Amino acid sequence: LDQYIEQAFSSNLNLIKEQISLSQQQSRVDEAYGNFLPSVGFKADYLLAAGGRTIAVPVGDLVNPIYGALNQITGEEQFPTNLANLDEQFLPNDFHDTRLVINQPLFNTSIYYNHKAQEQLISVQEAKIAAYKVELKNEVKQAYFNYLKTEQVLAIYDSTQLLLNELLRTNRKLVKYDKATEDIIYSVEYELQKLESDRAAILQQRITVQTYFNTLLNRDLNEAIITEPNFDIASFPAINPQNMIASALQARPEIKQIERGILASKTVEELQRRTNLPTLGLQVQAGFQG
After folding, report:
1. What confidence category does residue 252 fall into, taking pLDDT thresholds of 50, 70 and 90?
2. Which residues does 171 contact at the CB level (< 8 Å), separation at least 6?
């Protein structure tokens, strides 16, 4: 039975699913912790623009009179006076901007409480797995004991059938020698037929229990169940209900799951209350344009 329980712990599909959920939650914790670390990004933009809005720059209107006045003062044509006004395109054309961006959060309560909540959810998932293991162990034991009961009932039916066959043989001799009426034969034949019907029901019940047991262990549904010889349920120690209730309230994983879930919920509430606090961070950019 202990080997079957260990096999269920390693092969049960629902338990494997819960363990995968635990691994996923651990990944979320790692991801939340990564928000404390600096993030590095590389960005590159290239702009190619034609048409659209322009910006009028009156270079000629502003500079030509000044240059003309300077030429008059110096008496020489040293400065050009025919500069044209410019119409610069609003978007830069043939322009690139390549930069490395580093962001480092310095104060952010959302990051802190999110990481704390994700860590607490790991303990919730661990308690959930422990609770499911307790339930799975109980189901494996129940299925195993139910299978043992069908085996014992079939053994009783076998011995009963031998007895009835012997009784039928005896009754037929009594009727043959006029020591009894034939109704005693019919009575035994009825009991034999009823026994066969009950045996068929128990055989079907054994198949159902065997299928369910193998489902818990995630193996072939028709695989045989090996039972322990001379297994005696009465050999189990007596149970004091009051002591077991007190022990359950202290150690049941379902209660731990609820308690840890409450802690995680309180952390999320704290996160919501602190969303309006300011955040502080550091950003560094380095690159080139042209």
Report:
1. confident
2. 180, 184, 185, 188
- Residues 128, 113: Cα–Cα separation, whole Å: 22
Q: DSSP character for 98? A: E
What tokens appear for 223 in the block?
A: 């695989």
Task: Give pTM, 2 decimals.
Answer: 0.65
The full DSSP string for 140-173 is HHHHHHHHHHHHHHHHHHHHHHHHHHHHHHHHHH
**What was the pLDDT predicted at 233?**
58
Query: What long-range pairs does 181-189 form, CB within 8 A, spacing at least 24?
Result: 188/164
Beta-strand pair 280-289/86-89: unpaired
Cα–Cα distance between 34 and 60 in angstroms, integer? 57
When the pLDDT of each residue in the chain is averaged and rounded to a whole number, the result is 88
The token pair at 4 is 């079957």
DSSP class of 36: T
